[in-house]
Structure formats: C-alpha cells, structure tokens
Amino acid sequence: MDSELELIRGWFAYFADTRRGYLETPAKLPPAELTRDRGASYPSLLDIFAHSQGALYFWMKDCATFPFPPQEDESDGPPTIDALKKDETYIQTQIQRVMAELTEADFSRTITRVKGRGSDHDCQVPVRDALWHLVEEELQHRGELNALLWQLDVNPPVVSWVKWAHTVGRIKDPPS
To answer: Is residue 25 part of a domain?
Structure first.
C-alpha cells in the first residue's frame, strides 16, 4: 500500500500530466469563447484556469521548504492562453521541487493562512491539509471546466486517475 507521501506525489504528478489538456483544448476555441462570462465560479474559462493556477502557487509557496523564485512578467490584465502556458510551466517546475523535497514529517508542519482572500480569520494549516485541499480544488475546477466545455459541444480532455495510473505503471495488468 502506498504511503500518504506517495499518494500525494502521485496526485500531483497526475495533475501535472493532465492539466496540459486543459490548456490545449481551450486553445482551439475562438478567443471570444475563452473570455466570455459564463456565470461560473470565475467568469471565463481562462479565469477559472488562472484561479486554479493561483491556488497552486499560493498554497505551494507556503508548503515549500525553499523560497519560490518570483514569477516573471505577471500581468494585471485578463489571462491569455500563452500567459497561462508560461505560468503553468513555472508552477509545475516549483511543484516538482516541492514534491521531491517533501517528507512525511513535513505533513505536520503548519503554514499561516491570514485573514483575507478566501479566509475569514487567521489560522495555522497543516501542510497535509493544504495539499489535500489542493487536490479538492483541482478536481472542483476541472469538473467545472468540463461542464462548461460540454455546453460548447467540446469534449474536455478528461483523463481518469485509473487510466493515467495504468499508463504510468502505478496500476498493473493482471498476470497472464
């Protein structure tokens, strides 16, 4: 049975591999479809993806045992596919480093979540809880993107955990 550390690393590897499709699929849509307000958790398809990147960055920089180098050329304008692709490369590079350096002991270390931006009070969050929160956050917004793409008659790049795990050898075929 996998340890919790192996499970977390697996989930974040799965997200890294499958998030690419959530940039490639919308890139095929007309620009007006990418930026149209759809009345979802964040206005547009690009805004939802940008929010999920922001959540990864926000929590991971605090979970890390090293300082994240500053992200270059952050724009205050609306997100674009090119900017999201660049940000995704940066964020995934940092996440890979966090996952490589993460230990079981780190799970009980706490990070400070200050009042404001999504928190109504100051609190100490164990790294374990922050990482599992990111799993929930990713799945929530991925489902939202799927639903919005289906409304456009576009097949989302759904890759189930089981299919991905089989592809990378985490799940094996039965013996012959």
So the answer is: yes
